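Allow me, if you will, to draw on your knowledge of protein folds for a short while. Thank you for your consideration; the sequence and its tokens are set out here:
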Amino acid sequence: MNLIKNELVKISKKRTIIIIITIILAFNLAYALLQKSSLSTIYPETDWKAEVNESILSSESQLEQFRKEHQTDDVLNNIDRQEKTIIYNKFLLLYNLNNQGWKSEALRNYFITEITEYKSAGYVSAALDPRLCYEYYNNNDWKSFLQLKKQKFLETTQFKDQIELIDFLCENNIEPSAENWKYKMTQRMIISKKTISEARQSYITYGLTEPEIRTMEVDNEIYEYRILNNVPESEKVSFQSFLVSSTDLIVIVFTITIIIGCSIVTSEYSRGTIKQLLCFPYKRWKILLSKYVTTFLVSIALLIFLYLVTIITGLIFFGADGFNSSQLFYNGSKIVELNSLLYTSILYLIAWLELIMITSFSIMLSVVFKHTAIAVGAGVLVTVSGEVLALYLANIYRLDFVKYLFIADMNFRQFFVNKLTIPDLTLKLSIIMFVIYFIVFNGISLYNFTKKDIL
């Protein structure tokens, strides 16, 4: 305990603490300001009224040009179409109908009486019955309108995704209106499924690896869970989204901890105090252990401080909206719903385990090479680019041995954030390899510090 107290006293200088606190506060504040200014919404809504007005101006311009031309049958048809388009768009503005919903689509078929479809012979114009379209619009009967569309889609093999969309909407009673978040999420899910299906058939066209496809499949499972269990996704940057995304700031704690852990080892050599330290009646392994424990205690304190600062910053900038909201993630077999605070707490705990591994690696280098720059540089490099390098080697070069490297095995967050992972790397294998590397790194440190001449 005395050794640990001495180490804590060494790094607990007022200036050092002020610098660390300032760095964490500055980065946290900058991140919050960036989130506040750059993204008002996660999925920005389009200004449909501006689009409709733009369409009216475009149609009026084209109408003016057509009227100047020789009045052939084709020109007269174009004039008729542009006039109907103008009437249709003005109707949308008059009755405040968003141009992305089923009602606007039904009215478009009523006013313009034309929908373009694919058939084996190429492009052909096939009209949906305008009287039925208006009847369904007037009776607010969106299911009948979708079934009318489906009948047309069944005439060709090119619209399987649209048929799947219609079936899903009808089965789950999801009205296809622009204001319905379930409809917009269902659209994203169906588009993603189509991309996955086509990517599996043609890797050259899409260039998606199997883990990338699997990540998209997990996203689709989460979409479906939200839709079926009525768990909306926040479309605005809220306290919840800020709290989850700000886990990226943990890299600051990683860097500070690595510098502290390496410095309290190498400084003993650079200052020559290692000789005095060995004069005390302590075994060498206890001296090294005290430095490890000190580093881990500091890392815990920094992570807790960062987490509390992030919560306070989030409440100040984004309010309490989403404070008790849920976060979804895939645990390998099913979708799990957790409170956002609990979820981010788990991410911080996992990050601490990752930090233990990186710190052990860095301290091992500091003991072996007795050089701060080498140890800190290697530790920070692994922190910043280790995960990216592992993913690159595994998914681009398809190297199977990557799953046994510590830069892949220490990253437990990959199993909780629905992101791209290393092929065939399971949580069980990752834990086993983590324990092995932890023993190896600390064994090398202990051997060099206790058995070799360190004077």
Q: What stands out?
A: Strands lie at 115-119, 122-126, 326-330, 335-339.
